[in-house]
Amino acid sequence: MSVIDRRAFLGTAAAAGFVTAQSANATEEVSAEELSQLGRTPHTKFAVNIEMWWKKLPFLERIKQAAAFGYPAYEFWPWERQDIDAMAALSQELGIECAQFTAWGFSPGLNDPKNHANFVKKIEEGCAAAKKLNCKKMTVVGGNDQPGMTQQEMHENIITGLKLAAPIAEANDIMLILEAMNIRVDHKGHCLYGSPPSIHICNEVGSPHVKINWDLYHMQITEGDLCGHLREGMKAGQIGYLQLADTPGRNEPGTGEIHYNRVLKEAYDLGYRDFLGLECRPKTTELAAAQGVAAADVW
Predict the structure, then answer these.
(1) Is the predicted pLDDT of residue 60 greater than 70, yes or no?
(2) CA distances from 189 to 106, 115, 257 (A)
(3) Angstrom distance (rounded) from CA 5 to CA 189
(4) pLDDT for the residue 63
(5) How far is CA 47 from CA 79, 145, 149, 293, in A?
(6) Is 291 helix (H, G, I), strand (E, B) or coil?
(7) 129-152 residue pLDDT tens
(8) Beta strands of the chain (E only): which ranges?
(9) CA–CA distance, 176 with 166 (Å, rounded to integer)
């Protein structure tokens, strides 16, 4: 089809049963218009992670669901396993953007120099995929601990690798966003965690196209004081992208200990206007998760 009319799409979605959904407590009949308003939040532009939402659906159907929920963008993990041409065509038809995807994952480690030549090659290939998707950011991961290397040595190797890739990112006008993990719950043995070393690495690389994928879930587990560290990251000019999930559980806002209304307001007051990734697992249903996300954007 040609560039799709959003209202026409939502009408089709309703006819296909897209808008009968399970809320946290009961089955809810939600009109297409009501559904489409959930992702159109007043302050924050959310990008739903389609690896973690609608997991039982085929991948392209998840993009349709993200559009039906009114989200302006989506994000996903390694691009190599997806049909990028089909994703690009569907995204254009639905009028939804790709906020970011993963260009380099946990293994092989960016923190080992023997992988740098392959890393540069993968960044070149990732940039080509990003251009098809009209996507401006790609996540890169530092890697798990390397036997016989100190943490400082591994971080220096990450700096070296990112310096090799930075000119490619700059030439393609695509930002590489380095994600720090947490080692207490999800990624034991990962070499990069917390904001201070992440800021240091990006400062050392010294490129406007290499910044941090600042995942608030990982940062809460690692260091807490989310608003204080956000201020430090913004002052350093090294926050390239934000993601969220509540903790414990890695579910949507309102299910754990983080007061996301306060955190999202802080990010907004600090001038963050880019997409914010919903890298969280719906605790019960996608409808309930979207309602929780929308409630967190109210202040």
Answers:
(1) yes
(2) 11, 19, 25
(3) 47
(4) 98
(5) 16, 30, 36, 11
(6) helix
(7) 999 999 999 999 999 999 999 999
(8) 20-22, 27-29, 45-49, 73-78, 97-104, 137-141, 175-179, 210-215, 239-244, 275-278
(9) 8
Q: How far is CA 111 from CA 4, 65, 134, 180, 272, in A?
A: 44, 37, 29, 13, 29
Query: Which residues, 6 or more positions from 201, have their beta carbon under 8 angstroms from its beta carbon?
Result: 155, 158, 159, 162, 178, 192
- The pLDDT value recorded for residue 28 is 63
Average pLDDT, the chain: 93
Residue 179 designated active-site: yes
CATH annotation of 23-296: 3.20.20.150
**Per-residue pLDDT averaged across 19-42, rounded?**
74
Catalytic residue among 75, 179, 252, 286: 179
Instruction: Confirm whether 223 is a catalytic residue.
Output: no
Q: Return d(Cα 100, Cα 50) in angstroms, integer.
A: 11
Residues 194, 35: Cα–Cα separation, whole Å: 36
Cα distance between residue 36 and residue 94, in whole Å: 12
pLDDT band at 11 (very low <50, low <70, confident <90, very high): very low
Q: Which residues contact 274 (CB under 8 A, 6 or more apart)?
A: 45, 99, 240, 241, 242
Structural contact between residues 273 and 45, judged by C-beta atoms closer than 8 angstroms:
yes
**If you search the block for the tokens 């996507």, which residue do you land on?**
135
- Calculate the dihedral angle through the C-alpha atoms of 235, 238, 240, 241, rounding to the nearest 10 degrees: -70
Which of the residues 75, 97, 279, 286 is marked catalytic?
A: 279
Which residues lie across from 21 on neighbouring strands?
28
Distances in Å between the alpha carbon of 56 and those of 22, 59, 65, 93, 201? 15, 9, 12, 23, 38
Q: Which stretches of 185-254 are assigned E, i.e. beta strand? A: 210-215, 239-244
Q: In a 3-state reduction of DSSP, which class is residue 84?
A: helix
Give counts: helices (H), strands (E), the chain.
11, 10
pTM: 0.92
pLDDT above 70 covers a percentage of the chain that reads 91
